[in-house]
Write a structure and sequence with these properties.
- It is globular, with a radius of gyration of 20 Å.
- The N terminus and C terminus are likely disordered.
- It is mostly helical.
- It has a single domain, classed as Growth Hormone, Chain: A (Up-down Bundle), CATH 1.20.1250.20.
- Helix content is 77%, strand content 0%.
- Keywords: Cell membrane, Membrane, Transmembrane, Transmembrane helix, Transport.
- It is found in: Cell membrane.
- It holds the Pfam family MFS_1.
Length: 431
Amino acid sequence: MSASRFRPARPAADGPRLGLRANLPQFMLLVAVNALVGGMLGQERTVLPLLAEDVFGLSAYTTALTYILAFGATKAVTNFFAGTWSDRFGRKPVLIAGWLVAIPVPAMLAWGPSWEWIVAANVLLGVNQGLAWSTTVIMKIDLAGPERRGLAMGFNEAAGYVAVAATAMATGAIADHAGLRPAPFLLGAAYVALALGLSTLAVRETREHARAEAARHRVPDGAEHHADLTTGQIARRTSLGDRSLSSASWAGMVNNLNDALAWGLFPLLFASHGLDVARIGVLAALYPAVWGAGQMLTGWWSDHIGRKHLITAGMLLQALAIALVAHGTTFSVWAVSQILLGAGTALVYPTLLAVVGDVAHPSWRARAVGVYRLWRDGGFAVGALLAGAIADLWGLTTAIWSVAALTAAAGLLVAVRMYETRPGGHAPAPR
């Protein structure tokens, strides 16, 4: 099959133009907005696990991880509706709604009088992340067109997770000097104000770009024209029916299960070996920093060599890194493990989103992204329950080894089941 069968026709002179160069100002604005979305998540990465233990006295791991469970479950469900609402009402209103929901979150984290307030704040944070992050993903896919989709997702995810890393390190340093509350969470308040202003005043709607791409979308030889699917059919296709979409959904869920482990239990493991808050903050930042910065390369790379092998390699590298965390006992060993974990995640994260963008028809792509992100961010909830329960029964190290084994299994599943989806990559027709 020739690459030209996937290449969109030249846009009409009076229609929306696709491509990064044609839409660079809006694209970079959305990159900045997504960095602020990531910063909202980063304000918790170092401080909240320590807050659970030191301020609220939660000793059971399962109980301490309830905030991740609340966040992950809410974000997963919100992702699904974000895709549907983006198709129905437009991308920009959904983005603004996500930032309106985030307004009380920093204050609840900074001054909440009980652990229930922290869990409630993470419910709102899950809604914020589900609406705002999903929408920036969809809008960048709309603008980029098919030929630079991997690069677009690399920029999107890089911005978000570099901001996670920078904020995690910043809040760790602030907490080391000013205490765990309230000072670290004032960064989050600034992020909300800036992002809400940009989203309301500067971001433009991109739904017409998706419609323009759909109007000239070319179907590969031998494939059916799946333009008119119901939301239920899209959910089944993304979850089970299509080999690449469903493999991406499973790999995404395991990837974020890993992230729940890194977010909730790694700081407690590091603290149990005598590391101070500042050094825990450095470790908490290393993983998303490498993850974030690496995605600018890996997203571009997947546009040139394909998606499947990068995802397989990334999942196996993550498994190795998590095993190294379980095996290690020193700052230097854990620093290496966090770098490897970030590199493995960078190989996987934008590439999985590019797979969804490759396979899904433009007319239902936003909903497919929502279903994929439902599964992917459900991994936070699964990770909180699974890792917390194993840690309570058999200890932190056993929980970490168990997740390493599960991650390796996910990589092997991708290697066996996923077909190559890159446009021009001689992929079989989607089923």
